[in-house]
Amino acid sequence: MLTLLLIGIFLCTEVAAQCAMCSLNAENSTTNGNTQGKGLNDGILFLLAIPYLIAVGVGILWYKKYRKNQPKRVSPFER
């Protein structure tokens, strides 16, 4: 899983996920020298990342609770 994450991070390409109106405004603003299009892309990616961060947080909390309820295993070498 860590390998897939690292591959995704290092081999990712530029993402341009916008609706038609947003992409038209972004293209027009960049041709005039403004950087609002980049800010718009960053905002969309930020909004996309939030649900994944929440899911990771819930997963960590669930994992910790699951580990707390597990009976403690005793190694045969510790007796």
TrEMBL record:
* Keywords per UniProt: Membrane, Signal, Transmembrane, Transmembrane helix
Signal peptide per UniProt:
1-17
Q: Give the residue spans that cross the bilayer.
A: 43-63
Keyword Transmembrane helix part of the UniProt annotation: yes
Q: What is this protein called?
A: Adenylosuccinate synthetase
To which species is this protein native?
A: Sphingobacterium bambusae
